Amino acid sequence: MTAAGGTEGVGHGTDAGAGGAGRIDCIDALRGLAVVLMVAHHLLYDLVEFLDAPEWLFSNPIFDALHYLFAGVFIFLSGVSSRFSRSNIKRGLKTLAAAVAVTLATWYIGLPVLFGILHLLAFCMLFYGLTGKLLRRLPRAAAPAIYIAGLVGSALAVRYAHIGGGYLWALGWPGSGFWSSDYFPVFPWLFVFLMGTWAGAYIRERRLPDWFYEVRIPLLAAVGRRALIIYLLHQPVLYAAVTAIKKLLQQ
Question: How many separate domains does the chain show?
Fold first, then answer.
């Protein structure tokens, strides 16, 4: 679920660019809002999973849609940040290390995250780090249409192309028996990230209205600048708190 001047990793790189001065608080604040909602989402999951709260509290049509909406915003903003990063390869490797740590920790407690949002973002950052020069040659007017076509086409392929074997789970074809407590495959989400890289060029060049660069939401921006560390720590903290509450209730 991920931020040059502050913490690298999931949300690295929201400096205003050559023509700007410092970070763009609006981007940090949007990322911070996505992080807050992610924490709330995982809290509801823990309440249902470990405290036997009603299942509808976590899984219902409204929350299911919002989950993917705000995850999409998070992925899009990470793409935006890629246009500000000094090294998307370094950023991707750092995020990959965090993703591996998440897999090991969640495997230990029996709820493994095999390819969650951090794994996806690590892949996207590395992919863009290796292909960015080529992708930036696409005509700007055509890039959104190409990425949207890729998004829709890959979503349909993942939904309707039944590819067996289970060895393509990272791409979006998990096969029977695959299970991950958080799952964001490469397709179709890569194209959401790439749309962010396209938008990031305009943001870096200060093509958006002045208010976008001037608005200040300090608390959410502070959260957004610490997105990676919050992502890594929030679930262990929530798990410990919910487990403690469960023990108290059982006494």
Answer: 1
